[in-house]
Structures are given as structure tokens and as C-alpha cells.
Amino acid sequence: MSFAVNPEPWDAEDGVELRAMQRAELDARYGSDDHEPGSAPSAGDITLFLVARNPEGAAVACGALRRLDAGSAEIKRMYVLPGHRGSGAATAVLRSLEAEAARLGLTELKLETGTAQPDAIRFYEREGYRLIDNFGPYAGAPLSICYARSLA
Length: 152
Fold this sequence. Notes:
By secondary structure, this protein is of the alpha+beta class. It is about 30% helix and about 30% strand. The chain has 3 helices and 7 strands, in the order E-H-E-E-E-H-E-H-E-E. The chain has helices at about 15-30, 90-105, 120-125; strands at about 5, 50-55, 60-65, 70-80, 110-115, 130, 145-150. It has a 7-stranded mixed sheet, with helices on both faces.
């Protein structure tokens, strides 16, 4: 299946809904809403927010970039609706984030996922991300697992 992946405003309805569904799923997986070290992303600190839409135009996945420094950004809020997992939507969003990061002159992408997200761990490893020491707000966080990929 092909997906149209395009930038959308952080506060647009479909993106808000996708992120709320992601949050509810993670709250259920971790058994609480206290599973994200550091500050939650916001319209004020997100460099780019992408939404993937299926051929019918329905929003099925999303992902964002939050700049860390002059050369790197963090991938935030990667999420695919459960019924669309395995469809290529996550890969489409990830490749679009990587392409946009390279266009912005970034040379590295980092991300954090968690111990209760084995599907995300497998996905990022399959897509060429390497395990790194937990960075920034995730340093010392027992539920966090961090990855990076060079874009250079």
C-alpha cells in the first residue's frame, strides 16, 4: 500500500487524535501515564510533524522531529494505528523524517523507545538504528532504550 506522507500542523485534529491514541496505548502497556522522561513535545519545539494518509485520505500514522542541536534531532511521536501495522506506514513516515532531516542539514537522528515496546525495538533495529547509551532526559531512565542513525 502507498501512503501520502506530508507535514501538518502539530495542533491539527488528525495529529492530535493519533497522538492521543499513542498515549493511551503506552499508558496501557506501562500501567501508568508516567513513562516519558523529559518534556513532552509541543508545537513550540517540534521542527516537523508528519502524518501518513492511506489512499482514502485517512490519517494512519505520524512522526515528528525535535531538534537537539545544530547537527541532530530526536524522532518523537512515531505511531501507527494498530490496524495498519505491517502495512509500510511506519517505514514511510520514518524515511520521510530522515529525508527531511537530511534536507535540513542534520547528520544524526536519535530516538527513545521503551522496554515495553518490543515491536518498536525490532522496527528501529531492522531500519538501521543502532543502540546507544541513553541520552539527555533518558539517561538513567530504567524504562528507556535509545537508538541513533547517522544520516551522513
